[in-house]
């Protein structure tokens, strides 16, 4: 495709081409003005300007009508084609059919969200969108907005904010916590009492090299101190440890419910209100893709009403 002389086009009012096309259709200044919903003097001025710019009479009065000159007849089909193409561009709405789309989406997750969402998402995609493939990766709060801005990920799900004007997002749910343990190794019964919870050894998830891990701030706000004997960045490691050692594993309730039983663990609610101090889980995307029906808001997610936020229950 050839280059465009933008300065040259800028000096030419492209609305004059619309006026030219209307004159070709109507063959009178009056009817052309009515067609464009402008006053007759304005249409006469457009015709005068066209005559000067194109250095041709363009339309010659014959009786009650105006007949196009040879140059006008030569220009007419090309101008009509250009206007039709522009109209198609302006009216175009990109569709998204998940059943036939062949596309890769890159998703960013914080902490346990990839483990919770990717299995069900993949199963659903194989059922209704076989051409869609997804790549998941862990992302941190301090980098998520840059990754969205740079297009390295299409969507992020996790404990992320979306307050900046260049991002869009909806809150998905408020987090709750649960603990799980191996009843063959720990003489506890659910619900675990506070004294037993504080004195028993703990296995926690950490993303910051602290023994108190991801619960450090929440524990500090309620004035609690856990006897943490093991911390890992991997949720599966923490669950496997609870299956093999006499420790309590405190995890997001959804993670405990889904994977705890697979390790033979017993679940119990927390005797501390830690979840009140935890950020909500949100889905965030870039405003650049807000009108992309596949990746961002799709013109609906950004403008439609999101589901009401909810606190975790049994689902």
Q: Enumerate the strands of the largest sheet in spatial order, edge to edge or round the barrel.
A: 4-3-5-12-6
The Cα radius of gyration reads 32 Å
- Characterize the largest beta sheet: strand count, sense, and whether it forms a barrel: 5 strands, mixed
Tell me what the CATH architecture of the largest domain is. 3-Layer(aba) Sandwich
Helix content: 25-40%
Q: Could you give the count of β-strands?
A: 12
Give the termini distance in whole angstroms: 54 Å
In sequence order, what are the helices and strands, one letter per element?
HHHHEEHEHEHEEEHEHEHEHEE
Mean pLDDT: 84
**Bulk shape:** rod-shaped
Per DSSP, what share of the residues sits in E-state strands of 2 or more residues? 15-25%
The CATH topology of the largest domain: D-Maltodextrin-Binding Protein, domain 2
Low-confidence stretches: 298-315
Number of domains: 3
Q: What would you call the structural class?
A: alpha/beta
Please give the count of helices: 11
The fourth-level CATH homologous superfamily of the largest domain is Periplasmic binding protein-like II
CATH top level assignment of the largest domain: Alpha Beta
